[in-house]
Design brief:
Helices cover 69% and strands 6% of the residues. The protein has a two-stranded antiparallel ribbon with strand order 1-2. By secondary structure, it is mostly helical. Helix 2 packs antiparallel against helix 3. It contains 7 helices and 2 strands; from the N terminus they run αββαααααα. It is globular.
Length: 215
């Protein structure tokens, strides 16, 4: 697990380090959730606020290390090991950046959480989109429609398209940062829902085309 998750582990250790460094300067109550307008509306004590994100990152590392061993298609992981490692690191980097921004906010740094989150999600989607076509059939990572799991040809077509769609969703998600208030959240959700529904429908259509080609 160490070799495949090395960068993610290093990022998680760094998250613990900055949490320890920030604890003496944090107020007793810290913001951990923000509403659509970017206003803090959820709070916790500083110890939970400072260490919950690194704990979640730790859980993610363990989960990503265990999943390949549980997957019935475990043999396929060796075919996209590099991409799996990059996806793991990208997720860890995303959570680390959220952690840094949250700590900065609670330390009095004027950061606009409502704008930064869609930008971060957008960058994450773009990274995932670039590596999605390289992911091979498995039950835990990727666009796991029933039709893609039944046919590697359908899986490959779905993920080649998925790479482009995720990059487009990433760019559009970043653009939502320019809207204000609840409309930003609405647009963001519409982008995610429409993009994923499109991929599900296309995966089904790929399977139908494959059946026609066989007959």
């Amino acid at each position: 697990m160490w070799k495949s998750n090395r960068l993610a582990i290093m990022l998680t250790v760094f998250a613990y380090v900055i949490s320890l460094a920030a604890i003496p300067y944090l107020p007793d109550q810290v913001a951990i959730h923000w509403n659509a307008a970017g206003e803090a509306d959820g709070f916790s004590n500083k110890w939970l606020g400072a260490f919950l994100p690194p704990l979640l990152m730790t859980f993610l590392i363990i989960l990503m290390g265990v999943l390949p061993k549980l997957d019935p298609k475990k043999a396929n992981y060796s075919r996209f090991q590099k991409s799996y490692r990059i996806v793991n690191a990208a997720l860890a980097c995303f959570f680390l950046l959220l952690h840094i921004v949250t700590l900065a906010y609670n330390l009095g740094v004027p950061v606009d959480i409502g704008r930064l989150v869609p930008v971060g999600v957008g960058v994450l989607f773009i990274v995932l989109g670039n590596y999605m076509p390289k992911i091979k059939p498995n039950y835990f990572i990727g666009i796991r429609t029933p039709w893609a799991l039944e046919s590697e040809a359908v899986w490959n077509k779905t993920h080649r398209l998925g790479g482009k769609v995720f990059i487009a969703m990433g760019i559009l998600s970043m653009l939502t940062a320019f809207w204000r208030g609840e409309m930003r959240v609405v647009l963001f959700l519409v982008i995610i829902v429409v993009g994923n529904l499109y991929l599900i429908v296309q995966s089904f259509l790929y399977e139908q085309q494959e059946q026609r080609d066989r007959s």
